[in-house]
Design goal:
This protein has a domain of 31 residues. It contains one helix and no strands. The protein is mainly alpha-helical. It starts with a helix and ends in a 34-residue tail after the last helix.
Length: 47
Amino acid sequence: MVSMIDAGSQAIAATMTTHLVSRAVNSVRMADPADPALIAPVGNPRR
């Protein structure tokens, strides 16, 4: 069972990418949850 979960996790992890987002994402006072620009990529994407 553990090996099956590990294999699935490894397959998914290999396809994941990240990108920088606004620092406001971490602020409950500054973040407007309805603003789609909040999680728009900022700067160069990273893999």
